[in-house]
Specification:
This protein is 11% helix and 41% strand. The protein has 132 residues and is mainly beta. The protein has one domain (22-126): Jelly Rolls (Sandwich), CATH 2.60.120. Strand 5 and strand 6 (87-88) form a beta hairpin. It is globular, with a radius of gyration of 17 Å.
């Protein structure tokens, strides 16, 4: 009985694990973003390094909400992937209407066409409650 439970737990872990070699923050394993209870904004920090994929952030939102974002630090490109899989970017407006309910991925990567593409950055995300 115990052996069956242990095997089932191991099988579940293997089935939900990220692809081999995926690093936290990569497109294959985005960093989950959870807003504080009752809060609608969060401050995230990261470091962009040469030849290292980072930083993809996954958050949940409802259709009709708006994502507001701001970044300081390294020169970056931003791309967003919607719940249906389509992407928008690089370059996004500071306020983005979220048309679908589900998980979104907001990716920050170095802007290789600009000076200062590598280094620390700070990202602020805000998703106010949907308008009533």
């Amino acid at each position: 009985m115990t052996r069956t439970i242990a095997f089932a737990a191991l099988a579940a872990l293997l089935l939900t694990a990220a692809p081999a070699g995926a690093q936290p923050g990569s497109d294959q394993q985005p960093i989950p973003v959870r807003f504080h209870r009752g809060g609608d904004s969060i401050r995230l920090t990261g470091v962009l390094r040469q030849n290292q994929q980072c930083c993809a952030y996954r958050f949940a939102a409802q259709a009709g909400q708006t994502l507001y974002w701001r970044e300081t630090g390294a020169a970056v490109r931003v791309v967003m992937t919607y719940p249906d899989g389509h992407t928008d970017g690089p370059g996004l407006p500071q306020g983005i209407a979220l048309p679908q309910t589900g998980p979104y991925v907001f990716t920050v990567s170095p802007d290789l066409m600009a000076d200062g593409a590598f280094g620390r950055f700070t990202l602020w995300l805000r998703i106010p409650p949907p308008a009533r």
